[in-house]
């Protein structure tokens, strides 16, 4: 009989992240990328800095992985609901949250989020656990959009999860042309739906799904050691000997959009 976890694997069609979860945090690149994402987001959303605590923002991170970005944004938020389709990633996050000094306002959930009314999301009112679901002040998602086949659908779900006049701030590497394909080694292409996100395409899509005040911009760039020759890094997917690979700079986009206020 299929377990909840195995049907989640089937739903994503992607076991790669469950397999990589235990070693995910050993890669310095993902830590640095999350720090850069936080910096870019804080620069655009001063409300995060103003009032953490009970008057702070409710943040949803979609595709949180092991919670690298959730953990560093948590001190600026009232709470962070950290959702990932890979149960293995969420297990790693849950273990980290048990450690001394870990943030206490992160709520990890192993969910392939397709419905803003999904009962696994927290309720808007804790005294009514089966009532309407919480709506968020800010939705973030980092290094995830390039894995999602139907961007229009996930953007619509995000919009449904927001309060009125609330925002998405989505970060991922840019599809800046044919070289963007080298971001992933050949052995790490499973689950890659596109080689980065495309600036103009994101602007059009976000407007199409109904966001207002859409702004998609290059926010930072990062160097990455990538395969010089397709398949050079073998199954490990990373350089294992000196001299392997070549360093390329990858621009990252920050995609912002506001849910229209509807009285
Ligand atoms: C490249 S990892 C990035 C993880 C994390 N954001 C980080 O930067 O370390 C992409 C993550 O997105 C998750 N993911 C992909 N599609 C998803 C979806 N539709 N809903 C939730 N999570 C998803 C995967 O399970 C994976 O953990």
UniProtKB/TrEMBL annotation:
Provide the protein name.
S-adenosyl-L-methionine-dependent methyltransferase
Taxonomic superkingdom: Eukaryota
Organism (species) = Exophiala viscosa
The cross-references to CDD domains, in alphabetical order and at most eight, read:
AdoMet_MTases
Please provide the record's keywords in A-Z order.
Answer: Methyltransferase, Transferase
Keyword rRNA-binding part of the UniProt annotation: no
GO BP, one example? methylation
What molecular function terms (GO) are annotated for this protein?
Answer: methyltransferase activity
Q: Which Gene3D superfamilies match?
A: Vaccinia Virus protein VP39
